[in-house]
Amino acid sequence: MPRDAEHGHLCDSCHNDMERWLGGGTDGAHAVWVHLGRAQGGISSTPTDTDHRGGSESVEPLRLAIFDTRRCLSDRIYIYGERLREVLNMKQPVGRFDIAKEARFLYTRLAAIEAEEDFAAWMYGDEAMSADDVCGHGLQGVMVRAHMVAPWRGAPLRLPAPCPECERLSLVMYGTAADPAARVAGNDSIG
């Protein structure tokens, strides 16, 4: 059942996701972008005797998946900043793109993003950027894919309390997530 919008056109959970992804913490766009770069660089081209790949599998598909996801993340942040400036009639920045600065720009204008229904839905992930987009829908799709190709979060912490929404005893919290949620079918990518 859909939740009521409490932050412009986003519910509390979606708002918390956007705060985490655009903020400067370990789940922030810049930190994830840096992590993906390190993960890509840390993949050895030849399997070692401790690898479970059996020695014959290529690591190139994983390396390319990480590269694509990293590129998609920086492209999304760039495009979101560019489009938000258009919506707010602001001048586009001149100079080299910096994902940390652009994510911070978006973070400081989160209320403006949430106030624009189409922009909030497009940015969060209610519609794809293009039909052949490898990263899925919106920023949510990129962050889920990033965690799939190069996980950075530890295992979820199981909380000994019922979910306030559905009263199930399956409440989990990832890292420093501000919004724990029940793990239910179709909602395995919480956090």
- Percentage beta strand: under 5%
Number of strands: 3
Q: What integer value in Å does the Rg equal? A: 18 Å
Helix percentage range? 40-55%
What is the string of SSEs from the N terminus onward? HHHHHHHEEE
Number of helices: 7
Mean pLDDT: 77
Largest sheet: 3 strands, antiparallel
Strand order of the largest sheet: 1-2-3
Tell me what the structure shows.
Residues 182-191 have low confidence and may be disordered. This protein has helices at residues 12-22, 29-41, 60-87, 99-108, 110-115, 117-124, 138-149, and strands spanning 157-158, 171-173, 181-182. Helix 1 (12-22) packs antiparallel against helix 4 (99-108) and helix 3 (60-87) crosses helix 4. It has 7 helices and 3 strands. The chain is mainly alpha-helical.
Keywords:
7 helices, mainly alpha, flat, 191 residues, disordered C terminus, 3 strands
Strand-helix topology:
Elements: H1 12-22, H2 29-41, H3 60-87, H4 99-108, H5 110-115, H6 117-124, H7 138-149, E1 157-158, E2 171-173, E3 181-182
Antiparallel strand pairs: 1-2, 2-3
Helix pairs in contact: 1-4, 2-3, 3-4, 3-7, 6-7
Give a short overview.
The chain has 191 residues and is mainly α. It contains seven helices and three strands, in the order αααααααβββ.
